[in-house]
Amino acid sequence: MRLGSGPMGVLIHLLVGLHIIGIAALLGGFLTQMKAMGQGAARFVPAMLHGAATMLVTGVALVGLNQADGNTVNTVKIGVKLALLIVILGLVYVKRDDETVDKRLFGLVGLLTVANIFIAVLWT
Ligand code: HEM
Fold first, then answer.
1. Which tens digit of pLDDT belongs to each residue from 12-23?
2. C or N: which end of the chain has fewer Cβ atoms within 10 Å?
3. Is the pLDDT of residue 119 over 70?
4. Looking only at Cα atoms, what is the longest distance across the chain?
């Protein structure tokens, strides 16, 4: 079995793994609040904040490592993902201590998260 094509490849794939753990925390946190969201009682749980922060750190590192490794990165796609994530992270950070968040705002964060997932997998 070949593990990721060289040390750099291994590092890149490890970071993709951490990137996916970040998605799991962000989206998973959102999903646990969906019933509460319907009642206007949802809150941004810590997993969402930590997941969003993980996406930023691992995403930026992935851009740098891919460029250092001579791989082309889709700048427009990454730019769109970064823009959406900044909105997500900003909202979750600012409202992190609010005991309840308006359902439209909460829903927007879930929508932007799902949008980023489909941008990542469909935009080639
Ligand atoms: C909620 C936000 C995000 C989600 C859901 C997400 C999702 C994903 C997924 C599913 C992959 C693996 C599939 C693929 O290779 O395309 C991936 C890869 C990657 N992501 Fe993200 N991402 C997010 C944010 C970011 C941000 C903010 C950046 C950079 C600033 C970033 C940069 C990258 C890079 C460089 C890859 C490597 C694979 C490639 O596109 O060649 N991501 N992302």
1. 999 999 999 999
2. N
3. yes
4. 51
Q: Provide long-range contacts, Cβ within 8 A and 24+ apart, for 100-109.
A: 100/40, 100/41, 100/42, 100/43, 101/42, 101/43, 101/44, 102/40, 103/37, 103/38, 103/40, 103/42, 106/30, 106/33, 106/37, 106/42, 106/44, 107/37, 109/30, 109/44, 109/48
Query: Whose Cα sits closest to atom 41 in ligand 1?
Result: 73
Domains of the chain: 6-122 (1.20.120)
| 121 CA → ligand 1 middle, Å | 9
Q: What are the structure tokens assigned to 7, written together?
A: 């040390």
pLDDT tens-digit series, residues 33-59? 999 999 999 999 999 999 999 999 999
pTM: 0.94
User: For a pocket test of ligand 1, which of 26, 55, 91 has the largest count of ligand atoms closer than 8 A to its C-beta?
Assistant: 55
